């Protein structure tokens, strides 16, 4: 059984308390990217998706 790899592209607009970059997709999904800096538009490999307080959140690693 193989698992597909998913990527997202997002512009980082802030940094969270753990130093990860944060941006938003057009549908309002929050994207948290390890290794990203404010102002960068990054392609990131999705690690996992979750829902926190009713909002979709994607955690990803910068490619």
Protein model, in words:
There is one protein chain. This protein is an all-beta fold. The chain is built from no helices and six strands. It has strands at residues 7-11, 14-15, 21-24, 30-34, 41-52, 55-62. The relative contact order is 0.30.
Shape: globular
The tally of beta strands, per DSSP, is 6
Strand order of the largest sheet: 1-5-6-4-3-2
Write the H/E string, N to C. Answer: EEEEEE
Main features:
single chain; 63 residues; mainly beta; six-stranded mixed sheet; 0% helix; 57% strand
Briefly summarize what is shown.
The protein is mostly beta strands. The protein has strands at residues 7-11, 14-15, 21-24, 30-34, 41-52, 55-62.
Draw up the topology in text.
Layout: E1 7-11, E2 14-15, E3 21-24, E4 30-34, E5 41-52, E6 55-62
Parallel strand pairs: 4-6
Antiparallel strand pairs: 1-5, 2-3, 3-4, 5-6
């Amino acid at each position: 059984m193989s698992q597909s790899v998913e990527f997202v592209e997002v512009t980082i607009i802030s940094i969270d308390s753990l130093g990860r970059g944060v941006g938003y997709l057009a549908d309002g999904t929050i994207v948290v990217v390890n290794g990203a800096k404010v102002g960068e538009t990054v392609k990131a490999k999705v690690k996992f998706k979750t829902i926190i307080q009713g909002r979709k959140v994607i955690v990803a690693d910068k490619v």
